[in-house]
């Protein structure tokens, strides 16, 4: 389960461990036919008569057996690590930036934490349905108030931009943390917005309380679609093209900068305690549901000042310059780091594809 991470992140040459039984692409929770791996026996099988240089293990008896086969041995005391804050490596000491990771659980699945999660699960499903119905059925004010009462925390700061004097809507350019980002922005501003997306599951489209429009990845057609939508009203775009959980911003697509002079950057960040509302390899239609299943999910929104006209394409700047400027503004507001990594980089690392799959009735990748 961790082999890919170890090889990619720590440059590990080989991984030997207990294999779990699978049916198709799903784990059953049972061990494979080879059974539970015995460390010292696996070490002998792998190295033969050669002794490995260094061994690291715990104080368990089985670890003592395999550590005795190593030239140097180091024992990690779990209790000391828990009580020692210095045992947590600061982010700037990581051997590589940890930018992409997947999986639904946002906590360390200790036995007690896993038990709490399973006990909460049925309540979480009911709570998620309740929160979805609030957004779909009720006016903005009521939905926001009752959502906060249910434990959903939405914080917004900044000022609502003045209405454009031109016959065109305002283009909101957001950082992308969950599929619900445009919904939270629309609810917080108490105004209808249109969100554009490259692909969205049918379920997410059905439960979305705001208008969503699909793009085609054809630059000319997408530009014409966004220009038409801006003539009709305000528009939300997430130029990263996909979500990122870590404190980084992916490279911004520059298409949006060519279409509007009234651009408002919006810094969005979310926090969850139990379930992540994003996935690269799972069902995208469940992303909003998992986010709303958290006991107290939070979304922090900061509406930044409108981009000065002289810093837009109308002021003589190139679309790439405008996109990079807005990316930097959002990164500074969030305390994040700008990167040149793209949606394709994320999906190739996490799912082994470019994030574009054939649409079916359940899900698509974005």
- Approximate shape: elongated
| Count of helical regions | 12
Strand order of the largest sheet: 5-12-11-6-9-7-8
Kindly estimate the percentage of residues that lie in beta strands according to DSSP: 15-25%
Helix content: 25-40%
Task: List the secondary-structure elements in sequence, H or E.
Answer: HEEHEHEHHHEEHEHEHEEEHEHEH
Q: How large is the radius of gyration?
A: 24 Å
Decide which structural class fits the backbone. alpha/beta
Q: Would you give the CATH topology of the largest domain?
A: Glycerol-3-phosphate (1)-acyltransferase
* Averaged pLDDT: 86
Number of E-state strands: 13
The CATH class of the largest domain, by name, is: Alpha Beta
The separation of the N and C termini measures 24 Å
Main pleated sheet = 7 strands, mixed
Low-confidence stretches: 359-366
CATH architecture of the largest domain: 3-Layer(aba) Sandwich
Number of domains: 2
Keywords: Acyltransferase, Membrane, Transferase, Transmembrane, Transmembrane helix
Domain Phospholipid/glycerol acyltransferase: 170-271
Protein name: Phospholipid/glycerol acyltransferase domain-containing protein
Family: Belongs to the GPAT/DAPAT family.
